[in-house]
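Why predict the complex rather than its parts? Because the way molecules touch one another can change local conformation, and only a joint prediction can capture that. The input here totals 630 residues.
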Amino acid sequence: MRVLVTAGFDAALHAVALAELARRAGHTVAGVLVVRALQAARVRAWVRQRGARSLFDAAKRLAGSRNVDARDAAMEEFLRERSIAERSLSQWCRVHDVALCTVEDLNSESACSFARAARVERVLYAGGGILRERFLAAVEARVLNAHAGPLPEVRGMNACEWSLLLGCEPTVTIHWIDSGIDTGATVERIAIALEARDDLESLRGKCTVAGVRGLVRALDDLAPPLPTRDGAKSSRQCFTMAPALRELAQAALRVRGSAESASG
Amino acid sequence: MSEPQSLERYTRHLEATGDWLVRSIEQGRGGSCAHFSPATGWSRPYPETTGYAIPTLLELGLRERALDVGRWLCSIQNEDGSWNGGLYPPKKTAKPSVFNTGQILDGLTALHRARAGVEFVDAAHRGARWLVSGMARNGLWAGGDYRASETPSYYSHVLWPMLETWRATGDDALREAAERGIATILARARGNGWFSRSGFTDEERAFTHTIAYTLRGLLECSRLLGAWDDIGAKTVPALERMLRKTELLHGRLPGELDCEWRAVGDYECLTGHAQTAINLLLWEERERDLRIVNGAAKLVDRVCATQTLRHPLAGLRGAVAGSWPIWGRYMTLRYPNWAAKYHCDALVALSMRLASEHARLTCASS
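Output of the joint prediction:
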């Protein structure tokens, strides 16, 4: 199957893992689309969302510095275990002679043209911002995403953290992307096991790893969309957590992790 | 277990803002100064906002301060039961004000609930009777008030204290009058959740300050009348809009909106942030959805981020600006006492909600 991988920045390890595992599974990675990280509008939005201090950590991640947090550590370990040597998409594309296109926006004409020209059967979404109708039309809406929360209950940002506060089991959902926010048909639900030592970053790391595996599995064995579970309903969209709510999520994780350990 | 960092931070901001409010009373010779300006210093006291600062003072444990300003307000009440508009002492041209009288009732009824003395509820009752005496058949006031030709929708913030006075006195005429006003304001709701005439003027645009007044008044009337379906639920489309806008803009809610919920200008109204946070938390009491608390926290965090807690100038230490940036259109270059009051209220409400959730988790873990 011909696939295209998207990413929000060049050193996105999960996107590297996704591209490589798809290749190893016998698929053809026909192209990689990366959104340029250093854009004034993006930096401004980042600072608004997370504060100026977070720029330092972000800069380290963009530069490819590892082990900034447990999330990166989990993906680093995943790559090491599978002997994946590349640590950026540009590097991976060079090694495997795959076309890389760096764009300002995935919905731009240049991104859509690149995606159309690649004539892919599936797009594996590994970041890069909200996809609009224009991009979805260019690839005939064949975009798969790994969402770090149960759908349709936990839509939007920080889904893994919100699952803890909204009383849902930590889950990664593989789903099709449509024009709504995490409203496309579900392909697979993957339960994420909690441990007493987990913190929010390590839980995110687990979700990312599970998402990479789930997306590659979806290429091999694409089952028809799953029906909505009984009683499950789409609800209010989640947004990035304010620090006070993040502390609550951390506390909820401690409680749940301890309970899981005690029962298991 | 130590207190979560955010709660500690909110406590520091609450203390500093509460201290500023106390300084505004110390400088006010009876009431609380309307505002502080780096250029002109403390203003004269403002009876209207001194009135509604009383519940905040009581919440902060400042009972004596609350009693002092309550007595001051009673001492400047007009013979007919009203209070004049504007600062004190009033200009020769000053007239009794519907809105200002309503806000003072809020404080006096709070003192009544705090068992502070019968004189407060008597004064509130006379004020409320004056409000009823001027009402038109539609439950609003002929000739408008302040800068509008018709009574604005944010006068729901007058109907709420009228209902508080009804609760305190049992005078059913107050309730009947307030219900007529509520019906008129509810009829102004548009399909997109906007309430027409929410602003100071006749234009269909409003500061978030008066949008929040409109919604708060209706939410509180709904609570006092036990009428969520008929009143409170009608505010939900507007609250959903405010929440979504807050989230999409990371707490930087525009200071002024038009009737299509589009930003007017490029500044924030910090009073409106705090008031909107309170409204979201009131709504969340019914919804029990921490995603709403998240929006409130972002608004409160935004106001906190603009505060200086250690400024050498006492008038700026712990103050909350009218606009951000400070040269924005709302209370330009000034730090109003009502911004401090609402920030205190929002900090208290948010901290209590978060603390209850932490306590629930602590119970679950033990």
